[in-house]
Amino acid sequence: MKLHPSSLATALALAVALAAPLAMAQDALTERQVHNQLEQQGYKKIHDLKFRDGMWRARAKSADGRSVTVKIDPRTGEAYPDEQVSRLSETDVRASLSTAGYTHVHDVDFKDGLWRAKAENPAGADVKLQIDPHTGKVIGTD
User: Fold this and answer.
1) What is the pLDDT of residues 1-19, one digit of tens each?
2) What's the CA gap between 100 and 24, in Å, rounded?
3) Can you give the pLDDT at residue 25?
4) Angle CA(81)–CA(86)–CA(122) in degrees, nearest 5?
5) In this structure, is the dihedral angle defined by the CA atoms of residues 67, 70, 76 and 77, taken in order, positive or negative?
6) Most buried of 6, 10, 93, 109, CB within 10 angstroms?
7) Residue 142 DSSP code
8) Residues 6+ apart with CB under 8 A from 49
């Protein structure tokens, strides 16, 4: 059977389109992987590791010996300690959310090392967001 070049191109385009969401989807880290990531970031005596509200959470000792509560990005393993300072202002966070397609942004607040906000996502659904204090990117949703 001989394939016509346009049929081959159509089949290839369809295969790429169907595979794209799979390539973009990233598996969440397991509890063991999160624990290992925290150790690699210098945390010790890690305990109470739980997944809640779209983020991993744990209690641990920081490298300087302080007891901290950390929230962990479930895709990257990056830890956000509760005593962190934000590099972004509320206006910066609102602008970042707007460019990401979120609308009706409200209740923007910096708490426990993360920005939080409520908004409508690009599909129009109401969501609660957790936002990276350095980049303004959404790292968790409820």
Assistant:
1) 555 555 544 544 444 444 4
2) 16
3) 53
4) 95
5) positive
6) 93
7) -
8) 31, 34, 35, 56, 57, 58
For residue 24, pLDDT over 90 is answered with no
Domain boundaries, the chain: 31-81, 90-141
Closest among 78, 37, 77, 42 to 63, alpha carbons compared: 42
DSSP assignment string, 5-68 = HHHHHHHHHHHHHHHHHHHH--PPPPHHHHHHHHHHTT-EEEEEEEEETTEEEEEEE-TTS-EE
How much is the pLDDT for 2? 58
In the numeric block, which tokens belong to residue 142? 């409820």
Residue 48 · residue 60 · CB < 8 Å: no
Instruction: Please identify, in words, the CATH class of the domain defined by 90-141.
Output: alpha beta
Are 105 and 97 a contacting pair, CB within 8 Å? yes
Q: Which amino acid is at 72?
A: I
Distances (CA, A) of 6 to 13, 79, 88: 10, 49, 50
Question: Mean per-residue pLDDT for 107-127?
Answer: 95
As a residue count, the chain comes to 142
